[in-house]
Amino acid sequence: MEWLEASTENCPVQRTLDVVGEKWTLLILRDAMNGVRRFDDFHRHIGLSEAVLSDRLRKLTAAGVLSTVPYREPGSRPRNEYRLTRKGWDLWPVLMALSQWGEAHTLESEEPVLDVRHTGCGAPLRVVVECSTEHSALTPREVTARPGPGARLRS
């Protein structure tokens, strides 16, 4: 089966975008990965409307990307913090790759906006694609992509 013969209904990229493929969702994930947990903090830092924020947090929670943990400030009603689940943390390389691309192709300044470094040695992070036998930093010309066993024919 060739790529154009394969149905895109079950495509993992499409299924992922159904969950996280919206600007505000990615910005919520960025903030959550940087320690933001409370609704008011997301609202203040990202600057989106309360209605959109509520909707995106609800969708991310329903998808299992975030979980809620109750808390209560003295004198206030109970509220929820939003914490990344394992499924949410698995999106970290995706956010790092988007950040790396943005630093390389969209900045007006040569200075990095977000300085992410390896705690152990202090070197800057670099997102790469590697094969499962540890051949690192592959390019698109070094890989073959074709429909896998779970692919279906287009109807």
Summary keywords:
155 residues; mainly alpha; two-stranded antiparallel sheet; 38% helix; 8% strand
List the helices and strands and how they pair.
Elements: H1 12-20, H2 23-33, H3 39-46, H4 50-62, E1 66-71, E2 79-84, H5 86-89, H6 92-105
Antiparallel strand pairs: 1-2
End-to-end separation in angstroms reads 13 Å
Report on the biggest sheet.
2 strands, antiparallel
Contiguous helical run count: 6
Mean pLDDT: 91
The tally of strands reads 2
Q: How much strand content do the residues show?
A: 5-15%
Estimated radius of gyration: 19 Å
Shape: globular
What is the strand arrangement across the widest sheet? 1-2
> How much helix, percentage-wise, in residues?
25-40%
Low-confidence runs: none
**Pattern of helices and strands:** HHHHEEHH
* Structural class by SSE content: mainly alpha
